[in-house]
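Hi V.,

You were right to ask for the full record rather than a summary. Here it is.
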Amino acid sequence: MNAKPVVLIVDDEPAIISSITRALEEDYQCVGALNAEEGRKAFDGRPITCVLSDQRMPGESGSDFLAWVREKHPDTIRILITGYSEFDSLVSAVNKGQIFHFLHKPWEPFELELIVKQAARVHGLAQENKRLEEALRERNRALERENLELKVDTIKEHETFQKLVGLSESMLLLKKKVQTLLPSQSTVLITGESGTGKELVARALHFAGSRQDKPFVAQNCAALPDSILESELFGHVKGAFTHAVDNRLGIIESAQGGTLFLDEVGDMSLSMQAKLLRFLQEGTLTQVGGRVERKVDVRVIAATHRNLEAMVEDKTFREDLFYRLNVIPLHTPPLRERPEDIPLLCEHFLHKHGAKLKRATSRLSPTALDALRAYPFPGNVRELENAVEYALNISGDKVEIQLEDLPEKLLRGNGTPVGLTSNPRTLPKGELPNITLEQAISALETDWIEKALESTAGNISQAAKMLGLSRQGLHNKLAKYGIRDSDPKIPE
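Predicted structure:
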């Protein structure tokens, strides 16, 4: 036989606790507490379905106590006992405790029983929903692992490939192209927005390819002025310029036999483009200040976030160099076009940075993951990685990273904090100036009805029964508050 749901009654008058207990004890296990401190202790070692708290008590008020319950035990349904005249108490409870219902003094026994019954039903539905969601998440994780094994079976399992995380169609296509190109020695041009993993693709081409035992040398062409960049690429001889006190090998020669990765090649000046073009055409270079041509065997992989074809049209990028680089084009998709990869990427970054922080296994809560899925990530995968690393540091020793642990920028999205809308019925946290009692009650009724509809998947009959209304009565409420009143998708 299932245990009775536990109802906590917090009131400084023992007679009221006894009265409520007598009304509920047949169907519920009632626990009494004379103040907020005793109420907190009542949560130790037991799950509490519902808490009824008086507003006016010595010391801590009912709304403050319910705010604590909301923070520490958010699954517990919260009901405030208050007088009709206690408007300030009602507003405070709405803001702090986000109560399920408020019970006016004096109450009728049938009213008390109905409200607690509805609270217990909502709690039970929420718990069942959580169990189903967790089972679904576990099943999805298993399917994702299975899909990864099936879909990427043809891709060479190398460390660099494992860093190309994603099961979206665009990522699987990119991995297959990279796999095909591993034996090739041809020049590759990787395009894509900043933070999409262009260098990871270049490293996969090298470290899983035929030149993997030779050097991989990378140079960001946007990071240096022409004079320094030329010396970095081609090297220089002693005395070539003021600070050239020794002969120096350039990074092109340092990559002999291996791969030269030129990142942000679209940021090169036209004069540097001409010098790079000559090397690509001849396979030889001359050091700055030198006269001897030197033969170099390297595979060139270039990358840029710019539109080189448009730059060719604008005469800011050499057309002949473009065609020399664009022998084999690859494109890294932005994260906003593959949001289905976000859970896998998060899991990858949680493991990567969790190991650095010597943290136990962490996971993202469903609400945190939903927020990450909803964010457009203009900084792409790099921004997502930063967000996960930030959350790991902020969350401390939590096993599950919560919504509030994410960077504030992600929580605001388009400028509106997650969880708030522009709907005037929604009551935000904080002070509520110029709000009438009628407005407060309307907001509570709206929230209650929406929760009932959500709990019953929009079934009008079931929601009406849960709310203690007739079908017509609920339809009237829907029309009054404009809640999906004419939505044909709501099952009847």
